[in-house]
Every structure is written in C-alpha cells, then in structure tokens.
TrEMBL record:
Pfam families cross-referenced by the UniProt entry: CRS1_YhbY (PF01985)
PROSITE patterns: CRM (PS51295)
Keyword Transmembrane helix carried by entry: no
Full protein name: RNA-binding protein
GO molecular function, one term: RNA binding
Keyword match RNA-binding: yes
CRM domain ranges (all copies): 2-98
Residue spans of biased composition, Basic residues class: 102-119
InterPro entries: RNA-binding_CRM, RNA-binding_domain, RNA-binding_YhbY, YhbY-like_sf
Keywords for the protein's UniProt record, in alphabetical order: RNA-binding
Length: 119
C-alpha cells in the first residue's frame, strides 16, 4: 500500500473536492466488477472518489483498506460515506511507444492567395 504524508493528503483532499464519485459500493460489497472499475478509474484519473452505501464506519474503513491493498493505492481520506483514493500513474518506459499529439479537428487552413495590386 502506498503511503502519503500529511501535506500530500491535504493537497489531494483539496484536489478531490470538486470530483464526483465514480463508483458506488452497495449491498453486494466489493465485487470483481467494482475492483476492475476502480482500477480503470485510478489508471485514468489518479485521484477518485468512491461512495459506500453502508452506515457502519468500521466497515467503510475496512473497505478502503481492502481497496488500497488490492489496487496498490493510497487512502487519502474518509469523509462520511465517501472514500478518496489516490494512485499515481505508472511512469513511461523507454520501450513504450510515445503517443503522437492528436491533429486538430475541423478545416485545414490552406494559405490564401494575397491581394493583387493593380498594375
């Protein structure tokens, strides 16, 4: 499990303030589908919120620990029924292909002919 210091936790909590939960964990608990969706969310966004529909605080803490251990992530904060979880994106390796920037959509701009002066 990844460890964060207090300054990092404070910064990540502030960054997560505007986020909406990407997954809701209900009565079925932590299923394989939920874990794969959390993994996808962490891979794409690094910082996610998860809503747990359970009233037991100890159970929510256990869920957060289980999620972080299985996904090699760091628990940022538990606020009520919301879990904030962070996992940095993996570093790019030299062997990995480098993505080219996307071409802008729309019309291509061709040079327009200049104005001719009368002779």
């Amino acid at each position: 499990m990844l460890e964060l210091d207090m300054a990092q936790r404070r910064l990540l909590t502030a960054n997560a303030h505007h986020l909406n939960p990407i997954v809701m964990i209900g009565k079925d608990g932590l299923t394989a589908g939920v874990i794969s969706e959390l993994d996808r969310g962490l891979t794409k966004h690094e910082l996610i919120k998860v809503k747990v529909l359970d009233d037991d605080r100890a159970h929510r803490e256990a869920l957060m620990e289980q999620i972080c251990q299985s996904l090699h992530a760091a628990p940022v904060k538990l606020i009520g029924k919301i879990l904030i979880i962070y996992r940095p994106k993996p570093e790019e390796t030299e062997d990995a292909p480098v993505a080219k920037p996307a071409k802008p959509k729309g019309r291509s701009k061709k040079p327009t002919p200049g104005r001719r002066r009368p002779a």
